[in-house]
Amino acid sequence: MIESHQLKRRDRYLNKLIGFQDTEPVKVIIGIRRCGKSSLLKLMIAHLTESGMQPEQIVEMNFESNDFRKMTSDAVYAYVKNKVISGKRMYLFLDEIQRIDGWEDAVNALRVDLDCDIYVTGSNAYLLSSEYSTYLSGRCVEIKMLPLSFSEFLSFHGFEVKETKSVLGGVHKRVFDKNGEQYELREAFEAFMRFGGMPGIADIGLNQEKARSLLDGIYSTVVVRDILEREKRRGQKRITDPILLRKIIMFLADNIGSNVSIASIGNTLMNEGLLEDDKRESAPSAHTVQAYVNALLESYFFYEIKRFDIKGKEYLRTLGKYYIVDVGLRNYLLGFRNRDSGHAIENVVYFELLRRGYDVAIGKIDNMEVDFIATTADEKKYIQVTESMGSEDVRKRELTPLRKIRDNYEKIVLSLEPGLDRSYEGIKSESLIEWLLAD
After folding, report:
1. pLDDT at res. 125
2. Angle (CA) 115 117 121, round 5°
3. pLDDT in the model for residue 24
4. Which of 86, 142, 136, 79 lies closest to 112, judged by CA?
5. Domain check: are 117 and 161 in the same one?
6. Which residues partner with 372 through β-bridges?
7. Are residues 401 and 295 in the same domain?
8. Among 348, 168, 64, which residue's Cα sits nearest to residue 360?
9. What DSSP designation does 260 have?
10. Residues 66 and 97 sit within 8 Å (Cβ to Cβ)
């Protein structure tokens, strides 16, 4: 077992698990491959042992390992049952369990037959499909895990934010590395925007070639294991063309934050000649493109965000947007260069809002758009994201949609260069980097 001091903390997620410890629901941790799910299980195991649990009460099974990956669901059940200590509660950690056919039967039987607390991880939303919920309806709690936030990125890479005094007596935040070297916050943020938040990059350092190699491995595993192989295992024949799949991935990565429809994806690929190699005479059907996009959503590679009509108070069926789970993966796909930085920072804000527990939609007001409506059970915020609030034209563009909204919920513009004004008629202007650090 990995010792706890070697593991980097992910307190946001660990505290959720601890909160559900020894409750009946099966704890289901889901998210894209290599975002830290296995390490989270290790952190939870370390918490249990530090709390006095005996190692014999803890059963770990990683179904990516040769030891377990060829098991049947009956063999999983038998293996765990053989480990049970009479009179003791057992803690079961089942990593990447979706690789076992009929795993639902094993988990449900373990839950019913044993005094146990069950934690499972999976890299695909199929894990929580209708088949799964039939077995465990109302008896599972889902914890969605994402790559590192900006503040986690700093911590994982050994950076610390400290306040220093400026010449004029004010306070200035700077970033310090382990050797005491100082950097501007903006430099650290640019490193985050370049390398992204996959935890494995912290082990190899901020080296572009090594990062590219690591991200290539993640990409290949998601595409091959979580999409193409899974389709084969399910007996489906909808997603059979790896070339088309990659081209749809490239299209979505290049168009994060833009309004797109399923029909427009196929047509655009044809019009730009991106499907010529396949000798197709027509664009793939909308049904086919939808199946490929759904597979990317199920593997947590992309996330879809719907539009909400603020005046009509209803979700719109047309023209959603897609965001990629990690900006580092996007740079791996499209090249490590500064491209479309406005949509890239939007991408970062979207996932930070998800981390903070908000439901997120795009806002439509008349013929204008608000980047994000972020809501919880008792809170709502309207958020615009822009690189700079320096010019009058940009201020007008960002503020006008917010001014049209007649309710009294908080309205914020987040930007890398917020300017001197902290408020425009009650609309807050905040530094994007400071907002991310407030995590």
Report:
1. 79
2. 140
3. 93
4. 136
5. no
6. 383
7. yes
8. 348
9. B
10. no
